[in-house]
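Case 354 in the screening queue. Each case pairs one protein sequence with one candidate compound; here the compound is alpha-D-galactopyranose. For every case the pipeline is the same: read the inputs, emit a complex structure as tokens, and attach any notable structural observations.

Predict complex for case 354.
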Amino acid sequence: MPKIFSPGRINIIGEHTDYSYGYVMPMAINLGNYLEYVPYDKISLRSDAYNEEIELDLSMINKKQNKWIDYILGVYNALFELNLKPGGIKGRIYGNLPISSGLSSSASLELAILVALNNSYNLKLNKLQLALIGKKAENDFVGVPSGILDQFAVTFGKKGFAIFLDTETLSYEYIPFPKDISVIVYNTGVKRELAKTGYADRKKIVEDSLRILNKNSSKEIIEKDLEKLDPLYRKRMGYIIRENNRVINAKEALKKNNLELLGKLLIESHNDIAKNYEVSSKELDFIVETSMKYGALGARLTGAGFGGSAIILALKDKAEKIAESVHKEYIKVFEYKSFYNIVESNDGANIIEN
Ligand code: GLA
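Case 354 output:
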């Protein structure tokens, strides 16, 4: 029976910049979804995470169910629109990627199905096409106006590397990730669905600003241009252009193995997004502050924010101790069911058994 592994992702830096066509630097991780499946005449899937089995006729793909299966129906709709008509699938989805935690569980699900259909129905789609179809499924069917960050990271991930991506041109570079650094993903236990957060509002401000300033991408905006914007727009876009610069600087810091600078950029990024983009939370701020107190190299929220997870970078031999200390302090203050994972970089969604 074919088996797929589709990872989740962290974003090292470059947050909320993708829908402004700026820079991001994500990394696929070794938490993700497994899909064991066989081709079938219907869509018949079991999700262990949701403890639910759903069977639908292929004629039903455009009927939204307001459930996890919508990510899969979205994929089918996007493929049908391209005049690709894969058959059905029967299988089971399971794994260790927490849902609604800022680690791209939805993109991971979309890409697991896409890789399976591409493989079994000979759709001949390349990685970039798969990532873009995943995004389309999420934007058009599920209704979340996300950028390309998640699907790109989940598709193009490479063990040992972070991905520096220009979200306008979609040109990218694999940046070796230092072997002596561990990444702790600290999950606040505060779940959120992007559809119910201020994500779409933020995106609208960015789109309006690009239009007002007559630019295709935030990369073209300079500080002086911001004077033409209203105060709230200026505040949001100011964060974005500074964040673009930080992504470039973080890439250089990684290349030179300058861990101190990398850590500093992560902290700057977190403080800036908290103050000027206002998508952090007291839980995320607490994790960032506490981890620095215990000797982390750097830390910041990862993904959309509004709850979800923070990443903490630490030297390998200190990571477990820092993670435990942060956890002890966190549970003294907050009652959420928080937890952490020390993660590794991983390859993108692919077939691991045929
Ligand atoms: C979510 C979206 C991405 C990106 C991040 C914020 O993960 O799906 O497209 O905008 O938030 O960086």
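Case 354 observations:
- The chain has a mean pLDDT of 97.
- The longest strand covers residues 23-40.
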